[in-house]
Inverse folding.
C-alpha cells in the first residue's frame, strides 16, 4: 500500500522516517513523508496554509491509498474545515489514520462521509518505548486491508460511506478533550447508535469531569448506543483530592444522561492503543 | 438589599463572612452565608445534592433579593440543570452574581429567562490584594439597584426576561473555557445580537486558541453582534513559543468566522473585573 504521511498538528521528529521505512517495507508498504511534516512555525508543523496544502495534496492524489497523520499535539482544528472542503473524488477512497489531536480530522471526515477514518497509532509513536509494536500493528492492519484492494474492492462505496442508522454497535474513538472541543462545530459527526470510546492524557480529574459533563449533555452524543472508557494517563494530582476516580466519574455522567456505560476500551496515549476503524461493528 | 451567598463550586474561606459583613452593612445590605458555603467534599463545597439544595433554597426564598455565588473553581455544571429545574416564581425576581465557573449558572439562568444574571466579582475576591474594592463595587452596584426596588419596580418583568431579539449591543460575559464547555448543552443561552465578552485565566495559548476555534465555530455564537476580549492572565509558557499573542489569536478566529472583533473588555480574574449585567445595552 502507498501511504502518505502529513502533519496537520505539530512538527515530526526528523529521525522517524529512517526508523519507519524498514518496518513499512517489511509489510509491503511504501511510505511518503510529505516535506511539510518537518516544517516548524511556532506551535505548528508550518503555517496553516502549508498544513492545509499538504493534506489536500495527498488526499487528492490517487497514488496514495492511505493518509497517516504524523503525530498529535495541537493544530488540526485550525486546518480541518479549510482542507476538507477541498477534498475531491480521490480523497474518498482512502484510509485516514491517527488519534489525539488528529481526531478533529477523523471527526470531520466521518461527518462528511469521506474515506475511512481510523483511530490508530501514528508514526510519532516510534518515540515511545516499545512503539515499534504499535506502528507495526498499523502497518499489518493496512496490509490486511490491501488484499481486497487488489481485488478492486478494498474500500467499497458501502464501506466509505457512513453505515445506515439501523446498524448498531458501530465504533468510534476520540480523545475526550478533542471530542468536547468539536461539539457544535461542522466537524461533529452523527454518532447515533455508535459505541463511543474515549481516552485522555494529561488532564486533571476536574477537567475530565467537566469534559464528560459537556459531551454527555450534548443531544447528539446522547443518541449513542453507549460509552466505553479508554485509558486516562498522566493525570496531574488534583488539589484537593477529587474524591472519585475516572471510571466512577464516567459511570456517573452516563447514568445522569441516560447513556449506557459499556466498560473499558483498549485505547489511550500508549503503545497498546487499539486500531478502531470508524463505523465498523465491534 | 438581602443577599444570600451559596457555593455551587468550591468551598469558601471561612474568614470571608467577618470581612464582608461590615462592607455589606456600609452599603445597607444584609448578607446571609448559607452554611453550605463551608462544606467540603473532595473538590467541591459539599456533595452535589447539598449544593443543589442550598441554591434552590435561597433562589426560591422571597426574603432574598440577590444570590451571590461565593467563588469559582469548578463544580457549577454538576448542579446547574438539577437546580434550575427547581427554581420557582420567587427565583425569577432576583439578581444572580458571579463569574468564572459560576458562568455555567449565569448561562443557564439567561437561557431560561430567570432573574437577572450579572457577571460580577465574588465574595472570594476579598482574598485578592485590593479585593475589597472589587467587592465594594458589587455592593454599591446592588445598592443602586435597590432604590427602584423600594418603589416596587427594581426588577420588572421586562428586565427579568431576556430582551427581545431586535435589541442589539446586549452584553454578556463569560470565562472562555466555561463558555466552551457549555456549548450544545441545555445551559447554552441564545446570544443573538449580543456583545460577548470573554476572559481567561491559567490556560496555555494553544488551549485558548482551541477554545476560540470551538466557540467561534458554533452556529449560535456566530449570531452574536461581536466579541470583546477581556484579560487573559497567568498564561503558562507555551513550548514551543506559540508565535502569536492572545489578541491576534482572537482577531484571527473572529475574522475566520465572520464575527466582528470589538476590542478589549474590562473583565478578568482580577480586582478590576467589571460588573456586566446580562442583556443590558452597553
Amino acid at each position: 500500500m502507498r501511504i502518505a504521511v502529513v502533519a496537520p498538528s505539530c512538527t515530526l521528529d526528523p529521525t522517524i522516517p529512517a526508523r519507519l521505512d524498514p518496518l513499512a517495507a517489511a509489510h509491503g508498504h511504501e511510505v511518503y513523508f510529505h516535506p511539510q511534516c518537518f516544517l516548524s512555525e511556532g506551535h505548528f508543523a508550518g503555517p496553516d496554509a502549508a498544513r492545509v496544502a499538504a493534506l489536500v495534496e495527498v488526499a487528492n492524489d490517487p497514488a496514495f491509498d492511505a493518509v497517516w497523520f504524523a503525530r498529535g499535539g495541537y493544530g488540526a482544528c485550525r486546518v480541518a474545515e479549510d482542507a476538507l472542503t477541498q477534498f475531491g473524488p480521490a480523497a474518498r477512497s482512502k484510509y485516514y489514520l491517527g488519534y489525539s489531536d488528529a481526531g478533529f480530522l477523523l471527526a470531520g471526515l466521518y461527518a462528511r462521509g469521506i474515506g475511512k477514518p481510523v483511530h490508530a497509532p501514528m508514526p510519532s509513536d516510534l518515540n515511545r518505548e516499545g512503539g515499534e509494536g504499535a506502528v507495526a500493528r498499523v502497518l499489518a492492519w493496512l496490509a490486511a486491508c490491501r488484499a481486497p484492494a487488489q481485488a478492486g474492492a478494498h474500500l467499497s462505496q458501502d464501506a466509505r460511506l457512513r453505515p445506515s442508522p439501523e446498524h448498531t454497535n458501530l465504533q468510534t474513538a476520540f480523545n475526550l478533550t478533542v471530542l468536547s472541543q468539536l461539539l457544535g462545530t461542522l466537524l461533529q459527526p452523527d454518532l447515533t447508535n455508535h459505541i463511543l470510546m474515549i481516552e485522555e492524557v494529561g488532564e486533571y480529574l476536574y477537567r475530565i469531569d467537566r469534559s464528560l459533563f459537556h459531551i454527555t449533555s450534548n443531544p447528539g452524543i446522547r443518541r449513542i448506543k453507549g460509552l466505553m472508557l479508554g485509558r486516562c494517563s498522566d493525570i496531574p494530582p488534583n488539589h484537593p483530592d477529587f474524591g472519585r476516580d475516572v471510571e466512577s466519574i464516567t459511570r456517573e455522567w452516563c447514568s445522569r444522561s441516560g447513556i449506557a456505560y459499556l466498560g473499558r476500551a483498549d485505547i489511550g496515549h500508549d503503545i497498546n492503543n487499539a486500531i478502531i476503524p470508524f463505523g465498523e461493528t465491534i
